[in-house]
Amino acid sequence: MSFTLRGPLPFMKTLDDALAICNRAEDNFYVDAFMIEAWLGEVVLKAVAEYAEKKSARDRQMQMGQAAQSFQNLFGHATDSELPHVLASLLRFLEYDDAQAEILRRASLGVSTEHDCSGDYIGPKAPNPACNSTEALLLVRPSIQRWCEWLDAVVHSDTHLRWHASPTQFDPDAEKRELAALGVNQRFFAGLSDFSKQWWQWHFGEAAARFKGSPKWPNVGQAMAATQNRIWNYPEADAAVISLWPLLKRHNWTYRDLLAVIHKTLPTPHRYPLQNERELATYCQNVLGLHKTPGTHGRSHPGGCPPGCDVALRLCRRPSECS
Prior knowledge:
The protein is an all-alpha fold and 323 residues long. The protein has helices at 15-25, 29-53, 66-75, 83-93, 99-118, 134-165, 174-187, 194-210, 219-225, 235-251, 255-265, 277-286, 309-315. Helices cover 59% and strands 0% of the residues. 32% of the residues are buried.
């Protein structure tokens, strides 16, 4: 997907703010943008909660359709004929210079790469949904669904990194997590975008009033001063597994398939936890919170190039070895 950045989105605290902007601009997009922001925020919060509230990584349920479920909660009322409008708003949202838009842009890379490799989903090789042809309309819902799966992977990757780099943001108490996030952003305030600064200032003022006199309020200052992190032994392996998980799900890869693809994408892959499929399976479940859907064992593909391998290699910027 190609686009030109439009600049930052208007600051919208409430739906009324979004409606007011729509009226001034004579453009209904901003209500959709407000809902997209709410959707992305919910997906991030759910991922953080999995890490923060479940002490054992094995109990976490990562990349289990959270983005799709949150999307359904907000946009589930849209009919098949209305979904192209939602898709158009999602694509326009990508064009803004915004931290949440950046998350969605990164997720769109997986969908667009799959389209480039196989012609699946919406893209230049597919009918344009704006034409309202039956063939095009039938592609919209699965394209959004697939985008959600890649979004789960992007959010999981970011959450896993933050879990190691900023432990103070993962208190089991959701309110303390909120305050810690304010403190961390305060520490890096000078480097925030104008939009993020505006958002922080509003959120800080609202939280200060809400937590006035609360013993939880000092979490802001504690997080601002905190510098500790968690030891991260295998960042490259973690990033590879988390980012390729949508392909494992779609093509029903075995752990042997996943291992074969990772061996093609990492420069030095034959180390723990990538020495054999049993080791990898245990690591996925016990460290990354990734679990294959029950009943989807599949069969390993000979030659080490399962379906979707070409997508993985392109995403990892490695030369394709798959026919």
